[in-house]
Amino acid sequence: MFDGYSLSELGSIFAMQGFAGLILFSVFVLMALGLAIIFGQMGVINMAHGEFMILGAYVTFVCSHLVGEHAPWLFPGYFFIAMALAFVASGSLGMLVEWSLIRFLYRRPLDTLLATWGLSLIMQQIFRSTFGAREVGVTLPDWLMGSLSLTDTIEVPINGLFVMALTMTISAVVYAVLFRARWGRGVRAVMQNRVMAGAVGINTEKVDRYTFGLGCGIAGVAGSAFTMVGSTGPTSGQLYIVDTFLVVVFGGAQSLIGTIASAFTISQAQSTMEFFLSGSMAKVLTLLTVVGILMLRPQGLFVLKVRR
Amino acid sequence: MTRSFLTGTRGELLGVGVLALLVLLVLPLSLDVFRLNLVGKYLTYAFVAVGLVLCWGSAGILSLGQGIFFGLGGYCMAMFLKLEASNPEATKIQSTPGIPDFMDWNQLTSLPWFWEPFHSLTFSLAAVVLVPSALAFVIGVAMFKRRVGGVYFAIITQAIAAILTILIVGQQGYTGGINGITDLRTLKGWDIRTDEAKLVLYFVNAALLLGCILLCLAVRRSKLGRILVALRDKEDRVRFSGYDVANFKTFVFCLAAALAGVGGAMFTLQVGFMSPSFVGIVPSIELVIYCAVGGRLSLLGAVYGTLLVNWAKTSFSESFPELWLFAMGALFIGVVMAFPNGLAGLFQTHVVPRLDRLRGRGLPPVPGPTRMAAE
Amino acid sequence: MSSDDIRKDSHDALRRKLLLGMAALPAAAMMPRLAFAQAPATAAINTTGLAVTDSTVKVGILHSVTGTMSISETGSVEAEKLAIQQINEMGGVLGRKIEFIQEDGASDWPTFAEKSRKLLVNDKVAAVFGCWTSASRKAVLPVFEQYNGMLYYPTFYEGLEQSKNVIYTGQEATQQILAGLDWVFKEKGAKSFYLIGSDYIWPRTSNKIARKHIEKNGFKVAGEEYFPLGHTQFNSVINKIKLTKPDVIYAIVVGGSNVAFYKQLKAAGIDLKKQTLMTISVTEDEMLGIGGENIAGAYACMKYFQSLDNPNNKAFVEAFKKMWGADSVIGDVTQAAYLGPWLWKLTVEKAGSFDIDKVAAASPGIEFKGAPEGYVRIHENHHLWSKTRIGLAKADGQFDVIHETAELMEPDPFPKGYQ
């Protein structure tokens, strides 16, 4: 397939292909980070993760409408407001769900799976009743759509850069919160030994609630960002759920670095295979490889030794 | 709890008897063929739910991929029926007569090798059981030997369901793609689309289901069943006692897969086609909820759960389509939060004591619809 | 309605029918109501026990109102209800008011089969307007053939099917593809094509026909790619497109993938005003989700666009918006769904009977001059003769119709040389 192309053309294609892989990587990290916190740190299987993302997307949709109608001068910058609101909306809903549902189920992880699946059905129907069954189009500020020409042949999509920057920022913030702040110490303490953490005076219930809220909030921001690359409809959330869980499990559930490493591996594998194979087979092969490796190494790429 | 007259082997058999009475006599007499055929379809899901009781309730292995095995069983049956429906006479307008129509549209000029054996009914019937169990065996050995369990197992089975769906949809020349294998007509010359055939198939299906339940009861009664419960509750202790835990888990997973395969085959026969929409993630999770509603510990409960949820689905979606997802979601949450033992649990705590009391007063025993295994 | 009620109803209907068989002719002649003055006797026009009374006839509407497909099928339900209402306002069919029974297929194929059996066996409807996906049609087809029902199927689809019991009011694949390709050959001087689609039967069959046609004309297919339904990452294939620099991107991507594909195409700097893109899977409905600004400049190949300029269509769009809200949009399939009840009415009146066999036999040659798309006629193969049109997508979510074939295109569900 490379016949008849000059070396520089090939070079630029590989550069763009590498870049496509990086964008996919950022998308995966953004999807998985919230789940990694909830699943990895708390052991809760949140099947409604995709719906929390779509909630963020709908918040962005509402924002784009409101801003477009009432404050057009704000439009170029509304996306940042929308992301903040998406975080707040998904985060507070997450905390509500934790308080009313999840906290009764910490000892039964498989049951959280069923309960949150039920939650996801309810959320889907709420979306459908509120926004209609059809997909909604989110209008984006012009500066987000389009591309930068680095050379004549290498073009970089701006929204890709935006997602990458966002991913880096959020990862950095999560890292800082979990590993540098006092609150993060509490989270890690509860995760490693709930009883002991309680004994030294950490309010484990509060930590749980905020951790769950944080994870859902990040999902909301991810959903908001994905309005740039994907669709927003009542059932769009389900598209993400398998990929997201595989990224988290493949990385090793308790390790955030693992999540990032696994997102990198899977995204590079997928984007390379998509280039050489047809789309469907690339997807099948990627999933098969991941499942295969997980069978050989069930604990995932990175393991955090925890005494239970 | 004091021992009720409804526990123990006698109680179990009584329960099976009542179920038999219901599905073999009461329902056929009170429903028309159309509704009865619906019940027959629901009962095919009950095969999966019964398997899940063994695998999830007894042994603690939650599989989110039972749709895979249901689908494989269904496809094995559908392949046989499709080959019979595509005899050279019926397909003479095709460019290659004698192969299924969708292959012809996809420029296949001969039958793929893996379709060949499905000319034989015996082979197909064997494949209905063996293909799902073989896949379950491979997955089981790979996972359980490495002590993957719980959540990880659930997620990996889910991923496998996703892979299989993409494959079936993508390889449409070999599988019929997203439309599935449709327009199945006869089984060895016997038209399966007539009302009489549907009636016969209903009874075959119901009898098979009862047989499977008895088999599962036997498994649970056996020493094997006790080991399964033990490893669900304290896997390490069982392992330290010298048992190879992985083998037991693999066995029960394969058994559940085989049951699901039988269900899938009966589904194909009664509904008349098979499509990838039963293989994916969503149907697989729905199958789990049938089992959870009935009570994950009770084989009979699973059957009632399946019937109840599906009946609710049909009648709800007829009258209030918008409310259906709310109801379904609430059911998931309610079962997990308030009734972890499902219908069977409710029966055990509310109905059984009353029945005992009635019996204590010298009244004749009233058979209950179900009981919960509480060993 | 329980099955007992239904049985009782059909008994009543039977009894009434027998009574009326003797009394209907003089009674009808004396009837004061004008619209029903010519109504022929029920016994004469319904010999197979369908749900037809002296004043009403029952039909079925069978679409997904819940589940993933409800996104697409809502428009069809709305159009069918509008057509039925309009027909009733004109006096109904053979003097009988149409009553519809709506069933939900719930995006689930066995449910479609089950509900169609209910409509045909229990409700004894005279016709069913419904189904959207090929999978749902394949699931109900044996039921319609077994119980001898009549289905009006609205969606453009892959062809390879023909049944006495189905009237296909949408285009089969060649009607949608060939004329569009001829147009880009001629107008754009296109020589190389990149085919991309969602991975299932309709895009694959359509692309196969497109590939044959392109190669027959001596041009080149630079690449052909399929992605699983619901796929949302297209950057790699966009790079491949950039590498191969095709004259035309030929896209048959559906559902949520559609939105992702066009957004990523735009973000990757492919300007559809310079790069020709032709699609057969984007109607006004899909434009809502994609966002007009992301797809402006693309060409869609359909038989109908909402912006079509003719008196029929003006009246149709106005009536549709009046009934379903000023915001509603009308895509190709919605219009095709609207044709169903009208074609059925015309056929029944030509046949002078509701009997399925007579309706099926009378169908070929039926003309509908009031169609929003202009004029359609039913072919012997139960598909429609219709024009192919090309629309240029605009940022406001509508299309400019820039080309239409001079003649009606002949439907050819089993195209020789394209298989």
Automatic annotation (TrEMBL), chain A:
The chain crosses the membrane at residues 12-38, 50-67, 73-97, 109-127, 158-178, 212-233, 239-263, 275-296. It holds the Pfam family BPD_transp_2. The keyword Transmembrane helix applies. Keywords: Amino-acid transport, Cell membrane, Membrane, Transmembrane, Transmembrane helix, Transport. CDD domains: TM_PBP1_LivH_like. Its main location: membrane. It is a multi-pass membrane protein. InterPro entries: ABC_transp_permease, ABC_UrtB_bac, BCAA_transport_permease. It comes from the Bacteria. It is found in: Cell membrane. The keyword Cell membrane applies. Belongs to the binding-protein-dependent transport system permease family. LivHM subfamily. This is Urea ABC transporter permease subunit UrtB. It comes from Azospirillum oleiclasticum.
TrEMBL record, chain B:
Keywords: Cell membrane, Membrane, Transmembrane, Transmembrane helix. It is found in: Cell membrane. The chain crosses the membrane at residues 13-31, 43-72, 121-144, 151-170, 199-219, 240-267, 287-311, 323-347. It is a multi-pass membrane protein. This is Urea ABC transporter permease subunit UrtC. Its main location: membrane. CDD domains: TM_PBP1_LivM_like. The gene is urtC. Pfam families: BPD_transp_2.
Automatic annotation (TrEMBL), chain C:
InterPro entries: ABC_urea-bd_UrtA (IPR017777), Leu_Ile_Val-bd (IPR000709), Peripla_BP_I (IPR028082), TAT_signal (IPR006311). Residues 1-37 form the signal peptide. NCBIfam families: urea_ABC_UrtA. Keywords: Signal. It holds the Pfam family Peripla_BP_5. This is Urea ABC transporter substrate-binding protein.
